[in-house]
Amino acid sequence: MCQGLDCDCDNGCCDGYTDFCCALTGENLCPPGTIVAGWWKADGSGFCDIGEPRPRFYLDCNQPCDSGCGCSGSGICDASCTTADCRCLSDCHSRAVDCTEFRYGQCNQHVECVGAIACRIVTCVPPWEWDPSCTTDFATDNATAFHDRPCLHDGFTDVAPNAFYTDAVAWMIANNITTGFSRDLFGPREAATRAHIATFLWRYAGRLTPSTTTGFDDVEPGAPEEQAVYWMAEHKYTLGTSATTFSPDRDVTRAEAITFLWRFAGEPMVANRHTFVDVAPSDFFDRAVSWASLVGITNGVSANEFGGAQTVDRAQIATFLFRYDQLSSMVGG
Question: Where are the domains of the chain?
Fold first, then answer.
């Protein structure tokens, strides 16, 4: 017998690991009322790799303890002090929930006592970015590297739940503007290339067919960005990096990104100039920054700097485009 089921000890419900939250609630998030109490990582899964090996992170969602309950030396209260219902989630091949009494302890350290682990989250986001209460101290358990559930592939697992870009990425998914690096990964912190921003703008505009697909020697026929690049060139949203090159694989700077969007918007003029000290009136992106700052598309990298020379990442591109869409919706309404 295992957790009330007639299972062999080599089945999932007896292996000592807790099931994933998405199998319990449908979301890769801690259930309401539970507490992120610790985390560990696993290397070598390939689950989070973009260009290089990256770890997969697991966060434990522990049950809270009733007030007045005491703690063991490991920070776990007695099971009678919680609402935990130790069981296998569905059958012998599923793992247990509310059973394992353990705490790694890097998260929510102000909570002295917790109960059994209700379920676990898996993410490619560093835990201290997923939940600011978590520290960077880590443990490694590579035995979990290939634990999986189909529900873990229902969305991007490298998008934190409350990041500045979360709503923007969700909007892009809903509007078929992004397919991500893979089914599981959006790559918010990856540098955005000129091909990326061209493709995002083209999809946002409705995937229009350009009148020609010739002119840039470095845009291969049939390349994913081909239609987007020539559509941008046709409408003068881009002038290329030379008369015959677009440089699709080159990283985009914040100055270039905001200029592309400004041109796409019709090069609107605004009455007041921005207040960023690192953008000169002679800079090619000066008017674009003034517009983007005034209408709320960018807040800069600080209160008085725009950071035009910095590489823009995919999270920032998503956010710029999302804010532009909200602005356009309000103006159109």
Answer: 12-153, 166-332
